[in-house]
Automatic annotation (TrEMBL):
<dbReference type="GO" id="GO:0004180">
    <property type="term" value="F:carboxypeptidase activity"/>
</dbReference>
<feature type="region of interest" description="Disordered">
    <location>
        <begin position="771"/>
        <end position="792"/>
    </location>
</feature>
<feature type="compositionally biased region" description="Basic and acidic residues">
    <location>
        <begin position="773"/>
        <end position="792"/>
    </location>
</feature>
<dbReference type="Pfam" id="PF14905">
    <property type="entry name" value="OMP_b-brl_3"/>
</dbReference>
<keyword id="KW-0121">Carboxypeptidase</keyword>
<keyword id="KW-0998">Cell outer membrane</keyword>
<dbReference type="InterPro" id="IPR037066">
    <property type="entry name" value="Plug_dom_sf"/>
</dbReference>
<keyword id="KW-0645">Protease</keyword>
<keyword id="KW-0472">Membrane</keyword>
<dbReference type="InterPro" id="IPR041700">
    <property type="entry name" value="OMP_b-brl_3"/>
</dbReference>
<dbReference type="Pfam" id="PF13620">
    <property type="entry name" value="CarboxypepD_reg"/>
</dbReference>
<protein>
    <submittedName>
        <fullName>Carboxypeptidase regulatory-like domain-containing protein</fullName>
    </submittedName>
</protein>
<dbReference type="InterPro" id="IPR036942">
    <property type="entry name" value="Beta-barrel_TonB_sf"/>
</dbReference>
<feature type="domain" description="Outer membrane protein beta-barrel">
    <location>
        <begin position="352"/>
        <end position="734"/>
    </location>
</feature>
<dbReference type="GO" id="GO:0009279">
    <property type="term" value="C:cell outer membrane"/>
</dbReference>
<keyword id="KW-0378">Hydrolase</keyword>
Amino acid sequence: MNTDRIPVAFASVMLLRSGDSSMVVFGMSDNDGNYSLNNIVPGKYWLRFSATGYNETQSPVFELTEQQKDFGTQVMSKDVKELQEVTVRSERALYQQKTEGLTVNVGSSIFTKGSSALDVLGRSPGVLVNRRNNTIELNGKPGVKIMLNGKLMYLSEEQLFNLLSGMSADNIATIELLTSPTAKYDAEGSAGLINIVLKKNKNIGTNGSESLTAGYGYREKIATSFNLSHNTKHMNLYGDYTYSRNHTYSSMDVDSWQDMPFMGGKVHTQGLDTTDALFSNHNVTVGMDARLNERTSIGGSVIYTNNRSSGSTFGHFQYNVLPDSLLKYDGVNSGANQWNNIVSSAYLEKRFHQGESMNINVDYLFFENNDHYMVQSSFVNKYNMQAGNHEALSAPAQKGAAHTNINVIVGKTDYMKQWGSKTKLEAGIKIAHTTNTSSSGFKSWIDTAWTSNRQTTSSIIMRETIGAAYASMTIDINTSTHLTTGIRYEYVTTQLNNADTGASVEQRNMGALFPNVLLTKKINAQNELQLSYTKRISRPSYNDMASYVGYSDPTTVYTGNPFLQPTITHNVRLGYYYKRYALSILFSRDINTIVRYQLTESPEHNMLYISPQNMSWQNNITFQATLPVSINNWWTMNWNFIGGSRKYAITYAKQPVEYGYFAYSVNYTHTFKLPRLFSVELSGNYNNQSYNGTQRVEGFHILNIGLKKELKDNKGSFQFSVNDIFRRERYEVHYGTITREPFDIMNRVVVYTEPSQFTIFKIGYSRSFGNGKKAEKRSAVSSDEQERIRKE
């Protein structure tokens, strides 16, 4: 600690031999100033302590005769000398492996400025962002859950997709891809958890940063951010504001064969949808941390987000009904959507004495969405006469609205007790209550009047309570072998009622145990082995189970599945680490895997339903390699490979099927440091062919290039980037390739994103300011995430 009795975080600790002062072991203090050095043979040594802003300190020579030795408290005095100005060019590694998964330091990439959180996720290893279905996959599996600063977002996949689309990446510090979370994390998320950690400046004094990014592709792109913090020894006040505007474009090309009674028999369909959309997003964060005394801290934060979008989709479809009939559909779907989100939290942290602490957290989350749309269309035969017999879905006009209101209250208590240096207990309880009120429906213009029916209207209120308790024990079996074992119990009650009548729609009660085990074997200072087992779950969301009807076209509607079952996942993972290199193999078994946007027939066999379904099971064997390579002092590379076999069974299709395939993805980044404080970043990712239920998804490759110029005298930096320089970001999906689809559909659907049709250029400027800015670069890893990252 320092002379003010405040712990010195991330101080360098070196153990040196007394004879020749050669270094034996290097370590670093944690956020509380604690450190440990392992694998030391008996002998005479001395310690050296150093940290930015402090005078170097050393211990007397001592003789180590036991495996364990407590060196007590070391006091470091501050270095008050004024240093000459020095320009330091230091970047955090883009990828850092830890026991629970991979950490992506997004601030190390030139492409982060002006991007959304969803854009950054799409460039992360093993993450597939499907912009056609609005879903996110991790390592080839659906069922991933998103956390914000460690807080689970209680939203459906589509709602999360919209939230992340409007979240600026400028204030994101790291993204944690947690494939083997321990018992202290929620068991929700069969594919794992993605934790988005926001930046938080802890430097003493008043500090801040600002950035502005402008770009152009199809239309304008703007992003700006400003944050400010004031930190004293006892209090930290912080806040930030971000704004983004994105005028974008996409299109969808459809070529389909099907045999549908509604259309009169065998049909060949060809069509094109084009979408012009405008997204505008505001985000405000304010927070406070206070150190009441040496053992007690309190704090809280509020994040408010307002997302607005508007746009029009123009559809042109031609239905060739064999042998010689023709139907034509032309429509314009215009709509507006608004999200208001509040994520608030408060905490109390209490340290009772050395090695014992408790944290109490209370969170309140509020999400509100309002969606309105109008469809104006013509559906005519080859004689230009109205087709569809004046049925609702073929009417010349549709208008609809949807309103969602979600309130979540979460209370959590975590306790930690350390016994000596070999045993640590972590335990806690949590309760979360969610109330989700949702109403939706659309009306059709029939016979000069707006007409609705029961099938197209839904008004549901969902109440869900999740109670959880966990205990986890970490034991140092010896100096090189560590065991963490834990168990988590969660009990969930879910009730869906009709909001208008109060009638029960669905009621479920489920309790389950989720064990996990992690065994770590340190072979030597540079080699380590890990073996882990985890059990996880993915529960259906309200949207998955509700029997609503959403308009797609005159032959197709979106709906839910009230019979959907939760997914249970068992994971076994073996990892090997050498210095900064990481290799792992993951075996997973899913029961009742949830797959969304699958095709089924309506009960009357006259309409096509798009809904979530359960696959019987899915087995994955996944290999992952993280390979940082330094060619020389100006050229570094980061490679990440994820691939393996996938096999699953489908019973909801007309013809049940078991299917297997090999899938892989590669992420890479090349960074070139050039003279005069210039740097160039070349990054890309390739995803090969994969499958989503009965759908085959073709592979694609994206390559980005960026240029950065740092200014002298801490005056900031300029960034210039071009996304998807070869215009390859498109999503091609095939239906009917592995089994029979409803109405014998054979579809090819291609979604062309904006970068695949328009080159997007962005230029930005950012700078930091304040009296603590030099200390900001002292560590390769910020205080918030240091404790989460595996140390070499």
